[in-house]
Structure formats: structure tokens, C-alpha cells
Amino acid sequence: MKAAVLYKFGEVPRYEDFPDPSPTQEEVLIKVKAVGFENVDKMMAEGKHFASNQFLTELPAIVGFDGIGELTDGKLVGFGGTKAPYGAMAEKTVVPKTHTVPIPEGIDAATAAVLPASALTSLFPLKWGAKLQKGETVLINGATGVAGKLAVQIAKLLGAGRIIGTGRNPDSLKQIMDLGADAVINLKQPKGQLSDSFKKEAKDGYDVILDFLWGHPTETLINTLIPDEIGYVGNRIRLVQIGEAVGETISLPASSLRNSGLEIIGASAGMTPEAINESTNQVWEWLRENKLKMDIEKVPLKDIESTWKRTDFQGKRIVIVP
Ligand SMILES: NC(=O)c1ccc[n+]([C@@H]2O[C@H](COP(=O)([O-])OP(=O)(O)OC[C@H]3O[C@@H](n4cnc5c(N)ncnc54)[C@H](OP(=O)(O)O)[C@@H]3O)[C@@H](O)[C@H]2O)c1
């Protein structure tokens, strides 16, 4: 079979022949249909990820750790738990029988490979972490990214009253208006003007903030939440920290928490098995109803070497198709 084979940590995987896998009694054979290509795949192959040695226990090995594929009876499943030398980016792989989940009918493999995980990134925080109420105002900081664009659509589907999205790319800012945002803030402006934009678009105040950025934009945003009057506590502003596309740290003034109503929680707050189950079913339902859009570029497995070196992934997800 053909596969993306890594010979040495730090090298680019090669597209070449690899012996077919044969499953043990505890494993199933998977005909791979689609594999999301993520930063984590590169980090693992560079040996820089904390789990590199856990997954790539021997080399040469096939890269990629999960994906969507067909069982021998033709049923489409999500799979994970590949074990070196077999990985996901190949025509076939093997995984433990316990590591497959059925994909509902009517959903294509490439969408199933990348969309649900990114959608859950904002559905959890909105519904279970921040407990968004219908009509509330939601600010999505980093709305022009893959996860942010889905966040705009999901906030709308959950009944947000007003949605404001931030980003830098003018085309993407326009796109998020088409996806349901009521206003956008361009982050590429001097700090003072950016503060003014955050204040202006808050109108009666933000209720929920989904933060994919951290770093200086989030710092500027939080500073605008500090009330002018001592003792005044406004809305409960639930800021959910999800990503750090801009920076790992911020400087947080005590006054921003003392009487602003600001509450900072993490993306996994409220994540229980029930919440995971309900949210996953909700995403499948929205997908069947064609209510979620994502920019996906399908790339044939044979192009893995050139794709591995690409850096133009902003705003879209790459899916490797064997
Ligand atoms: N915790 C989780 O479960 C989870 C899941 C998914 C993602 N994430 C994290 O969330 C973040 C976003 O992920 P993504 O997949 O949406 O990434 P993405 O598609 O690459 O989007 C990145 C976002 O960050 C903005 N950005 C990047 N550099 C910036 C800068 N210097 N100043 C201002 N804005 C900047 C981009 O704006 P423009 O494109 O407009 O320039 C875009 O909105 C990442 O940190 C990711 O690791 C976390």
C-alpha cells in the first residue's frame, strides 16, 4: 500500500510503498478515507511533542494518528489509537476494535475528519462553560480563524442576540459577517483605537467572550472592561480561554476582575461525558442539516511531501485523502 512514511524525527515524511497491516484478534482493518492534517502531526514528527515517543515508538513509521475510514463491511467510522509503525496517513491502517466510532449517514469523510472537533471547541464553551442565554451578546476574539468562523455560526445557532468578531484579514472579516456576525473589529489598528472599538461594539456590555488569541489583543480587550465608576459591577462577563494564537501570557490588572463582572474560565469547564455526548450529537445534526460551513482543502496522499512544507493554512483545514 502507499503511505506517508517518516524515517527520522525532523524529516519530511515520504510518499512510498509500505507493507500492508494485518489486524490481530483485538484489532480492525481500516480503509482510510480522510485524515485531518494538523500542527500536532508536524510537532510529533519533529519529535517536539510530549507524546512523540509515545506514538512514534519505532521508525520508520507512518504518520497521522486518527481519521475517518471504512471497516471491511463498508461502514464509515472515526478511528484513533494507531500504533507504530502503522499510522493514519496511509491507504490502510489497523486500530483496536474499541477505538472506532460510527459516523452517521449522510456526512462525508473529509468533513467528519475535521469539522466536529473544531465545532466542539466553541459549542462546549458557549453551551456548557459560559451557559449562553438566548439574546446575549457574544464577542469572538479570533473569529477569522477556522475555529472562530465556526464559533460565529454556533453562537448564532444557539440564539446569541449580537455577535461581534475580531480578526485582521479583511476578506475573512467580510466572510464572518456573511456567516452571521453583526459587527467586526479589525485588530490591526493602534492600541488606543482598538480599545475604542471594543468599547463601542460592547454597547450594553459583552456577556460571553470566546478567546482564541490571548496576548496583546486580549489584554487590550480586558482593559476596556474595567468600569470607570468604583463599586460598579456590570454584567457577568464570561470570558472563555480557548487558544493562544497571539501570545502565551497577558498582564492582568487586579481591577479588571475586582468590579467589572469579568469571570475567566477555561475551554474545558463543564465538560462531562453527558455534555460531550449531547454536543457531539448536536454537531452531527447541524451537519446533516447543512448548517455549518468550513473551508476544507482536500489534498491527495501522494502530495504529502509538498503539503508538509506548506504554511498557508490560515482560515482553512487541510484533509489528506489516500
Ligand atoms: N482548546 C481547543 O480545544 C482548541 C481547539 C481549536 C483551536 N484552538 C486554538 O485556538 C487558536 C485558533 O485556532 P484556529 O484553528 O482557529 O487557528 P487559525 O485558523 O490559524 O486562526 C488564527 C486566528 O488568530 C488570528 N491571529 C493570528 N496571529 C495574530 C496576531 N498576531 N494578531 C492578531 N490576530 C492574530 C488570526 O487572524 P487573521 O487570520 O484575521 O489574521 C485568526 O483569527 C489556536 O491557538 C489553537 O491552538 C484550541
Characteristics of this structure?
322 residues, alpha/beta, seven-stranded mixed sheet, binds NADP nicotinamide-adenine-dinucleotide phosphate
Report on the architecture of this protein:
By secondary structure, the chain is α/β, with parallel strands linked by helices. The protein has ten helices and 16 strands. The strands form three sheets. Strands 3, 5, 6, 7, 8, 15 and 16 form a seven-stranded mixed beta sheet that branches. Strands 11-10-9-12-13-14 form a six-stranded parallel beta sheet, sandwiched between helices. Strand 10 (162-167), helix 5 (170-178) and strand 11 form a beta-alpha-beta unit. The longest helix has 21 residues, at 109-129. NADP nicotinamide-adenine-dinucleotide phosphate binds next to helix 3 and helix 4. NADP nicotinamide-adenine-dinucleotide phosphate binds at residues 118, 121, 142, 144-148, 167-169, 172, 187, 212-213, 217, 242-246, 267, 314-315.
